[in-house]
């Protein structure tokens, strides 16, 4: 059902964790609907110096979280904002149709974390 | 303890069981050597007809029924369809109301929903937190136009065994037919149609070491049943189509083995079940046992584990060669929580962490130890990823 790439990121979600004193935090989803993701970012010189996450959810949700953090690291905030559900699914060599929307929340969680950072910085 | 090197620990016997060697052997001659059509009159056919009847008697014996009360079907699902729709269609002049429980298998549930579209009325009986149907509630739900009550014997997802004889007695007194889906219970606990006092009972080969693709429906005496498959006079006119002889032989053989082995199997499975339930209680915190603690199938252990999701859990156990099941919404194509977990009042977030282990005689104590070790490991790993677990620790 899942691609090898999905299984790789699910089996070894190396970016999982929490950043203490994160510059921005984004939380999306809720446990009642199935998946919940929290993204933590550290920003330096307008770039994402570090990205970590915590995820409650299925195989797809965990793989999505890890690859989004991987895709975002080192990117400028502007570049990171261009990550979408579609680019995430492509990077994972595809996701099952029914998982495209409910579990593919990583890009949204990251965008929320960036928004949180910008709000704190610019008010 | 040194980790055992186990490649395959199969813990999903409610989904399928391996076909027994003895069963395969018994079936083989009926593919090519004795292939005659049982409806023909010459030796090659009539002898096969006789074989079918011998095996019908074996299946009947498994549930203490009479031979002529057994219809062979293609599956447990077909038996359930035939019971619910067959009775409803043949008794529709008497009444158009049927009652089923909220935790029935999809084949009963969707047969009832089909009847709703045909202008029948269906009452879905709620269950308590353990999945038990209340006899008082059933009694109050029965109306003058009620023609059938269908309540499963044991539930495949939570293992709970219903007090069928108590429920069927109410129906008998009010003159309402009672059907029970015994697919999950046959071969795992004693199933006797007289003790259960039921009018119809479904069973399947898939749960007793016969192949997929064969089941049977018990119907009391000469009960009228509208066939779903119209055809010749096979199966006393209640199901058309040339009989699936090798599979009927397989079901018969598996039935004989199930009778012989039942009590040893139950003893063994109860040991495994208590090992797994006590192991989970001792070693994993924030876990709920689903289903009834005592009134449950001997080889059935099911839980909801807080702060993690079942599909991820199944895949990680799979990576350790352990095969189990879940009622999590994320694992279903429709992305809906199992109706059974909803019916017993499981909160949606907790239901996500559902895991079901169903065992058979072939499972060994060492396998359970291995499963416990890996389950602890995997739960810890998934919880370390979960934002819900962080809040549980109170940080």
Structure description:
The complex is a heterodimer of chains A (about 120) and B (about 400). Chain A is an alpha+beta fold and about 120 residues long. Chain A has a single domain, classed as Sufe protein. Chain: A, CATH 3.90.1010. Chain A has six helices and three strands, in the order αβββααααα. Chain A has helices at about 5-10, 60-70, 75-80, 85-90, 100, 105-120; strands spanning about 25-30, 35-45, 45-55. In chain A, strands 1-2-3 form a three-stranded antiparallel β-sheet. In chain A, strand 2 and strand 3 (about 45-55) form a beta hairpin. Chain A is globular. The mean pLDDT of chain A is about 95. Chain B contains 13 helices and twelve strands. In chain B, helix 3 runs parallel beside helix 4. Chain B has about 400 residues and is of the alpha/beta class. Chain B folds into two domains: about 10-15 and about 260-390, Aspartate Aminotransferase, domain 1; about 20-260, 3-Layer(aba) Sandwich (Aspartate Aminotransferase, domain 2), CATH 3.40.640.10. In chain B, the strands form three sheets. A seven-stranded mixed β-sheet of chain B has the order 2-8-7-6-5-3-4, sandwiched between helices. In chain B, strands 9-10-12 form a three-stranded antiparallel β-sheet. A two-stranded parallel sheet of chain B has the order 1-11. The radius of gyration of chain B is 22 Å and the shape is globular. Classes of the chains: A alpha+beta (about 120), B alpha/beta (about 400). Chains A and B meet through helix 1, strand 2, strand 3 and helix 2 of A and helix 9 and helix 13 of B.
């Amino acid at each position: 059902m899942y691609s090898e790439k999905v299984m790789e990121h699910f089996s070894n979600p190396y970016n999982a964790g929490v950043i203490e004193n994160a510059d921005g935090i984004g939380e999306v989803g809720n446990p009642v609907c199935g998946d919940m993701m929290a993204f933590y970012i550290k920003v330096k010189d307008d770039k994402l110096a570090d990205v970590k996450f915590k995820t409650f959810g299925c195989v797809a949700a965990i793989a999505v979280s890890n690859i989004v953090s991987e895709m975002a690291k080192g990117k400028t905030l502007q570049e990171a904002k261009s990550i979408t559900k579609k680019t995430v699914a492509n990077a994972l060599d595809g996701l099952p149709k029914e998982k495209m929307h409910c579990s593919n929340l990583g890009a949204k969680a990251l965008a929320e974390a960036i928004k949180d950072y910008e709000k704190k910085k610019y008010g | 303890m040194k980790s055992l090197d186990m490649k395959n620990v199969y813990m999903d016997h409610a989904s399928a069981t391996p076909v027994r060697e003895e069963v395969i052997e018994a079936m083989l001659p009926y593919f090519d050597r004795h292939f005659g059509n049982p409806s023909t009159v010459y030796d090659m056919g009539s002898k096969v007809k006789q074989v079918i009847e011998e095996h019908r008697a074996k299946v009947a014996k498994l549930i203490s029924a009479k031979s002529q009360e057994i219809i062979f079907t293609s599956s447990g699902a077909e038996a359930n369809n035939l019971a619910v729709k067959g009775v409803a269609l043949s008794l529709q002049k008497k009444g158009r109301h049927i009652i089923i429980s909220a935790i029935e298998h999809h084949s009963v549930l969707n047969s009832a929903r089909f009847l709703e579209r045909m202008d029948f009325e269906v009452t879905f009986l709620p269950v308590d937190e353990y999945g038990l149907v209340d006899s008082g509630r059933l009694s109050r739900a029965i109306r003058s136009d009620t023609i059938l009550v269908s309540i499963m014997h044991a539930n495949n997802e939570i293992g709970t065994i219903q007090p069928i004889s108590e429920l069927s007695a109410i129906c008998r007194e009010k003159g309402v037919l009672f059907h029970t889906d015994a697919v999950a219970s046959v071969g795992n606990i004693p199933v006797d149609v007289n003790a259960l006092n039921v009018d119809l009972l479904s069973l399947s080969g898939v749960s007793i070491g016969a192949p997929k693709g064969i089941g049977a429906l018990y119907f009391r005496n000469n009960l009228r049943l509208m066939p779903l498959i119209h055809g010749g006079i096979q199966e006393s006119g209640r199901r058309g189509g040339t009989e699936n002889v090798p599979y009927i032989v397989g079901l018969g053989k598996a039935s004989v083995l199930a009778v012989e082995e039942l009590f040893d199997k139950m003893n063994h499975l109860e040991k495994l079940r208590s090992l797994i339930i006590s192991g989970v209680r001792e070693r994993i915190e924030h876990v709920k046992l689903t289903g009834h603690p005592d009134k449950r199938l001997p080889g059935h252990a099911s839980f909801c584990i807080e702060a993690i999701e079942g599909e991820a859990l199944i895949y990680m156990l799979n990576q350790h060669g352990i095969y189990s099941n879940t009622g999590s919404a994320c694992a279903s194509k429709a992305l809906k929580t199992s109706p059974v977990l909803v019916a017993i009042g499981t909160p949606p977030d907790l239901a996500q962490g559902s895991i079901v282990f169903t065992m058979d005689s072939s499972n060994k104590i060492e396998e359970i130890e291995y499963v416990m070790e890996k389950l602890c490991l995997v739960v810890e790993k998934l919880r370390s990823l979960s934002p819900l677990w962080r809040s549980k620790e109170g940080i």
